[in-house]
Amino acid sequence: MAVSTESFLHLARPLAPAVIGVQPTTAPLNVILQPQAVFSILDHAIRRDIRDTQSTRVIGALLGIRSEDGMEVEVRNCFAIPHTENEDQVEVDVEYQKNMLALQLKANPREVLLGWYTTSLELNSFSALIQNFFASPETGTFPHPAVHLTVSTEAGKEIDAKAYISAPVGVNAERAAESCLFIPVPYEIRYGEAEKSGLELISGAKDSENRAAPVVSDIEGLERAVDQSIDLLERVSEYVSSVLDEEREPSNALGQFLMNALSLAPKVDAQDIERDFNNHIQDVLVVSYLANTIRTQIDLSQRLATATLTMGGSDALAATGGGEGGGDKGQRGGQRGGKRGGGGRGGGGREPREPREPAE
Amino acid sequence: MADAISKDIPLNSVQIEALVVMKIVKACSATFPTTATGALVGMDVNGTLQVTNSFPFPTADVAASDSHPNDHMAASNIAAAAPRSKANGTYQTEMIKYLREVNVDANGVGWYTSANMGNFINLGLIENQFHYQKENNEKTIALVHDVSRSSQGALSLRAFRLSPTFMAAFKENKFTTEIMQKSKLTYKDILVELPIIVHNSHLLTSFLHQLPAELPKKDLEYPSSLSELTANPPPVPLYPNLDALDLSIDPFLERTCDQLLDSIETHYTELNNFQYFQRQLAREQTKVTAWKTKRAAENATRATQKLAPLPEDEWERLFKLPTEPSRLEGMLNAKQVEQYSRQVDGFTASISGKMFAVKSNLLPESS
């Protein structure tokens, strides 16, 4: 499955018999898939019930957001719909679809029904029947076209996907309901900044035997990123030196690109760098030091508040004395904490001189 | 509570399907900075809790209808309380009922919430998790996804449970000094963190291999011009994420500092409350002692007059000692401070590494 299709021919589709007053849109359509929708489809494909139906595919509805001009749909979410399929008939649980849609829309009020998906690449007359159901004015997406997404999930093969919209075509009036013209539309998989870290973690597990990976800490992630960039730099310098040794064919474009990249390096005075570096690292370290001091203070105050003090003679005295003593100590801890707090405020303001005061 | 858990194998790790990770990331980042919450479904196998699906809880869409900047606070509060509200209980049952029909594990295993720079330890989290964990024989977790930390590099996703001792104490809702001295409950024992493992299905692994991954091993064709190279950049692999090399740490440190200050303020308020209570108690006790001496003197006179002595325990009815304020808030605050300082430690570790790298890059002669 390609992440993006580069060029695409948009076919004009035959117009549907228009309802008076509502004009169906004929604009070209781009489909954007979000990773979690694809993941959800694949999950559904794994969980399909193979006992009581002969069908090897499952279907479900696509939810997401349609742009204002209707030219672009973004599939954000989807849910499975139970259905049975055999030689001569197909049954879709319409009631289930209706209820589930209502539930999903309750949690994501901005999403709308966009179409449906199935987990085989095949298009047949049942597909047309279901497509017409999803494109109809009462239960579907009319006047916008319903998107049909097919994802191949055959074991051992590449996962392939295709997106379609449909236009009505009728051999004759009786068969209009079960026939339609599927028109392929381009799609791309797009993920946002926020999803990047999630995808990183997930794809970290793809090469391991047990298909699992632990959640890593920031510093481990940093280590890997540094390793990766050192590796990349080595590749580039290897290429450059082999060009210099006239072992490999030089490329002007690559040379220009590398020059541009190198010219991004700032020209700053060594002393300035030294000074800024020292200032900044001190700031960071002071903040860290203060944060840990605050933690220790609070820890101490918590401990003193609940510590059993054994100073008093009789039991009754010890009980009241202990309580009061705890309060006293807690108060002292609090004052200290407050003082440190002032220091923390200075650290927050990031003035280079201020944070040092409480560190004395 | 503790007995119910020890009967079978306690949870020791959490295994999350990639689908759930993506769903949580999407739900949380879509509503950021408003808190998002949702339910998790799955099952437990030999002490490992497998989370296989999730769905968000419906919340009133305040942020969308009204773009007032302060409204997200109200929406956050609604969302944060969502997991224990009654309407969502029915929503959850309903949803699970439908999910069962399409062969999804129909078994609630907890809930998730979003956080902003680690500010997730509060009474809301405790109450929600208590709501889930109070059932007998439960195996539920709270997943916390930190949106702002994840944007800075590695994904921040953590799983928590309440410790059995804390559960017992919270059930009684008694957090007085005396009881805490007895039970030896400290802020470190509130939450138990479980390790998280992300798990992919075979199909998903196959799909991931089709996304841009490693750099191509074979030689590529040379681009014909610079513009072609900029127009068609080569695919960037998802893993490892080079965003982790980002140098801008200051906003994160600054925000954590602000949050630390807030915590100190809370701590101070708590202490003031407690001192007020101490003074009140002392005052009442002086009154009681005064009354007792007076009564003793009275009884002594009555004894000389050969009258029956007046009862000496009447003061319990006459004076009412103030109740001790709950220590819970202070404990949570302490836990929160600990969480912040660990976070700062983490930041410091990675940023100082990056800064030394930059320095030796710019000043190669000094290294």
From TrEMBL, chain A:
Location of this chain's protein in the cell: Cytoplasm
Record carries keyword Cell inner membrane: no
Function of the molecule: Component of the eukaryotic translation initiation factor 3 (eIF-3) complex, which is involved in protein synthesis of a specialized repertoire of mRNAs and, together with other initiation factors, stimulates binding of mRNA and methionyl-tRNAi to the 40S ribosome. The eIF-3 complex specifically targets and initiates translation of a subset of mRNAs involved in cell proliferation.
Annotated keywords: Cytoplasm, Initiation factor, Protein biosynthesis
Matching Gene3D superfamilies: Cytidine Deaminase, domain 2
Protein name: Eukaryotic translation initiation factor 3 subunit F
Record-linked PROSITE patterns: MPN
Organism taxonomic ancestry: Eukaryota, Fungi, Dikarya, Ascomycota, Pezizomycotina
Record's subunit section: Component of the eukaryotic translation initiation factor 3 (eIF-3) complex.
UniProt KW tRNA-binding keyword: no
Domain MPN: 31-170
Gene Ontology CC entries for this record: eukaryotic 43S preinitiation complex; eukaryotic 48S preinitiation complex; eukaryotic translation initiation factor 3 complex, eIF3e; eukaryotic translation initiation factor 3 complex, eIF3m
TM stretches of this protein: none
Basic and acidic residues bias locations: 348-360
Annotated region (Disordered), positions in chain: 318-360
Family: Belongs to the eIF-3 subunit F family.
Biological process, per Gene Ontology: formation of cytoplasmic translation initiation complex
Residues forming coiled coils: none
Automatic annotation (TrEMBL), chain B:
One GO process term, biological-process aspect: formation of cytoplasmic translation initiation complex
Superkingdom of the source species: Eukaryota
Keyword Phosphoprotein in annotation: no
MF terms in GO: metallopeptidase activity; translation initiation factor activity
Protein's UniProt keywords contain Aminoacyl-tRNA synthetase: no
Stored InterPro entries: eIF3h (IPR027524), eIF3h_C (IPR045810), JAMM/MPN+_dom (IPR000555), JAMM_MPN+_peptidase_M67A (IPR050242), MPN (IPR037518)
Subcellular location: Cytoplasm
PROSITE patterns tied to this protein: MPN
Sequence intervals crossing the membrane: none
Subunit structure: Component of the eukaryotic translation initiation factor 3 (eIF-3) complex.
Family assignment from sequence similarity: Belongs to the eIF-3 subunit H family.
Protein name: Eukaryotic translation initiation factor 3 subunit H
Lineage of the species this protein comes from: Eukaryota, Fungi, Dikarya, Ascomycota, Pezizomycotina
